[in-house]
Amino acid sequence: MAKRKISPWIKAALDWGPLVVFFIAFNRLKDGTYHIAGTDYSGFVVATALFIPMIAASTLVLWRLTGKLSAMQVATLVLVLIFGGLSVWLNDPTFFKMKPTIIYLLFAGILGAGLVRGKAWLQLVMEEALPMQHEGWMILTKRFVGLFLALAVANEIVWRTMSDTVWVDFKTFGLPIILVGFIMAQTKLFERYGIEKPGEDPAE
């Protein structure tokens, strides 16, 4: 399937829509217990059950619209299906709370394995949007490995020591803010190692 561009607003809605739905559902259902098919479920588990088909549908739509999915999107979907499914099946939110930890450790491990081989695999998923010299990609990849390891530790601390409400707020708002802040903090790196796109006028 050929790659196609879509509106940034549509992409943002597909990327963040399921998480917003989970956040709203959790806050509406968190104080209740829901009897479904002979079993009592917490609001957290019910919100998780809503989140799973939402992210599966949004990922499918994104693939149909763009003709591609990044390795990060595929890995996230698979882990949501596995750990979210376990939380619903076993009626235990612990598995879903562990999902971000597993995702960040997985990403850190993959990027770290590339660094050992002298390769910046982050470049494969970001080069089109951010042309940069190889040395710059190596530095950025090392920083992302450190970030992902730190986020994995942070997620473990939050879900193990704080309330469900705090963890949901951290997942919905804290993690995205940290990621955006981290990328913005790399401005000097982008300026130093950035490469002009073909046909781009440096005077513009």
TrEMBL record:
Transmembrane segments: 41-63, 70-90, 102-122, 143-161, 173-190
Predominant location: membrane
InterPro entries: YciB (IPR006008)
One cellular component term from this protein's GO annotations in UniProt: plasma membrane
Topology versus the membrane: Multi-pass membrane protein
Pfam family name, one: IspA
Signal peptide range: none
Positions in coiled-coil regions: none
Subcellular location: Cell inner membrane
Keywords of the record: Cell inner membrane, Cell membrane, Membrane, Transmembrane, Transmembrane helix
Family according to the record: Belongs to the YciB family.
Known function: Plays a role in cell envelope biogenesis, maintenance of cell envelope integrity and membrane homeostasis.
Protein name (Swiss-Prot/TrEMBL): Inner membrane-spanning protein YciB
Organism field: Thioclava atlantica
Organismal lineage: Bacteria, Pseudomonadati, Pseudomonadota, Alphaproteobacteria, Rhodobacterales
Name of the gene this protein is made from: yciB
